[in-house]
Structures are given as C-alpha cells and as structure tokens.
Amino acid sequence: MNAAERAIGIRLAAQIAATVNLFKGQFPDVRTDLRPWMNDDETQELVDPDSIDIGFHFPGLSRPCGCRSMLVQIRLFEDPIDGQRRAIGVEVAGYDHRGQQWRFSTVNRWQFGGTVTPQPAAAEKLKVFCRQVLELFNQPSEESEAS
Fold first, then answer.
1. Closest CA to 134 of 19, 3, 1, 5
2. How many domains is the chain partitioned into structurally?
C-alpha cells in the first residue's frame, strides 16, 4: 500500500519518514515517491494491504544499482498479543525502462535475483538499509515499554 496512505498515526508516519532518511543516507541522489501505486481498481487489487510501499528514483540510470528506480516494500504483521505492527521482511526491486531488472528479499536467504543485479558495494548498501528498516519497525513502542 502506498506509504502516503499508510502514514496514519504519529508512530507510523515517523517510521516512514525515518525509512526515507535511511534510504537517502545510502543513496543521497534519489527522489522519493510515497505514492508508487496508481489508484485505479486494477492496480489496487494487486496491492498488499499489509505493506508500506515507497518508490525511489535516480536522476538517471544508476550503474552501481543496475536500475533507474527502486520499489521498497516493507511487509508488516500485526502482533495479536500487543497489537503492534512489526516488519516481517523488506523487499526491494530495481526497475529501468525495460521493467524489473532485479529483486531482493530479506525473507529467506537475503539474495539478489534477476537479469542485472547491483554491484557489490551497492548491494551491501541495500542490505544495510534493509537491516536498519527491520530494526526501526521492530523496536518496541513507547506504550508497550511503559506497561
């Protein structure tokens, strides 16, 4: 689901803003898109309501990343015990004018797959970003620490 639509409540809005800052810390020249999905019915059928989706666009083709744009999807799970939303994984896909070039997921083996994959230094930056996002979304909330 578009990050702009998920930013309800102070905690989630702050986490989304922090995610953008973490990504820009690794890739400072990107432009952020908090609404990467179109709002038509056909597209909305494909959107995962339990994710936060953010697009990042380079000013041109990023050779180190092997793409021009990246879609970051933070997969969420609501803990039935405390009601907190936690991240169960981060998926990142790289796109250029030909479509999706590569995909990376923290679920399972933390490996890249696709026709073109990021160069090792860029791949490591993406892994660092994903680790930071998982830490950010899986910190206990202040309400649960107070109880």
1. 19
2. 1
